[in-house]
Specification:
The protein is built from ten helices and no strands. The protein has 258 residues and is mostly helical. The chain has one domain. Keywords: Membrane, Transmembrane, Transmembrane helix. It is found in: Membrane. Pfam families: PAP2.
């Protein structure tokens, strides 16, 4: 009973921490960023790109982000009959998403870098005011000062990165005897999708190239290592498995006495 109570308490702490991170993330989304001084020359050269609708709207982005844990949990539980792995996927994904959101928004608020289309956010009619006082919608203008880093890029790499790590461990992509082109391609597919989302943010003039490059770095490696995923990485890199016994769901137990 003490062990059960301890496990339940630890799980409660994990859930509370994730709720706190997600709450902080949502709250930071509403905060105004630092108002950086913009020189007239920069306003004309760097921030005067036309306003274009997002190629990957927010609704589509969140559909991708939220579908990842659902799909992975169904694969782990339904196809691999591994309930523990399905639950740990949710824990890993939720922690990664919360940390990534807080870190990305924190940098956005501190940096306050204008977006490439900031001019037309600030002056929708294309006419500057004498003291460069914005005449556009205050919420649109505020969002226009949150270019660095890209939230779309960081969220997509965060969620799809978890999927890529899980597939790498399940398929044994990096194993010396189990590696193959098909496994490599399957493992890289989520990252390719994340890369497409990131590239779209410069095509629609919502971000500078630096915003997209730095965004994936906001995701820390230790957020992707719950017990089962860590064991999968260790197994893929360190063990040799008979090819005849190779199966998609052949994830080993955590090594003991290492």
């Amino acid at each position: 009973m003490p062990l059960v109570r301890s496990a339940s308490f630890n799980l409660l702490i994990e859930i509370v921490l994730r709720i706190a991170l997600m709450s902080a993330f949502c709250y930071m989304e509403t905060l105004p960023p630092f108002k950086r001084v913009i020189h007239p020359a920069d306003l004309e050269s760097l921030y005067k790109y036309p306003r274009v609708d997002s190629y990957v709207p927010g609704g589509t982005l969140w559909a991708i982000v939220l579908s990842v844990p659902c799909v992975l949990s169904i694969l782990a539980w339904g196809c691999c009959n591994d309930c523990n792995d399905a639950f740990e996927i949710l824990l890993a994904w939720s922690l990664a998403l919360g940390l990534n959101g807080v870190l990305t928004d924190g940098i956005k608020l501190i940096a306050g870098r204008p977006r490439p289309d900031f001019f037309y956010r600030c002056f929708p009619d294309g006419v500057e005011t004498p003291k460069l006082v914005c005449t556009g919608d205050p919420m649109v203008v505020m969002d226009g000062r949150k270019s660095f880093p890209s939230g779309h890029s960081s969220l997509s790499f965060c969620s799809l990165g978890v999927a890529s790590v899980w597939l790498c461990g399940r398929l044994g992509t990096t194993s010396r005897r189990r590696g193959s082109a098909a496994r490599v391609l399957i493992t890289l597919c989520p990252l390719v999708v994340a890369g497409i989302v990131a590239l779209s943010r410069s095509c629609d003039y919502h971000h500078h190239w630096e915003d997209r490059v730095v965004s994936p770095l906001c995701l820390k490696e230790d957020t992707l290592k719950p017990p089962q995923v860590e064991a999968a990485w260790f197994h893929a890199a360190q063990t040799n498995t008979d090819l005849k016994k190779m199966r998609f769901c052949a994830l080993p137990q955590r090594p003991r006495n290492l």
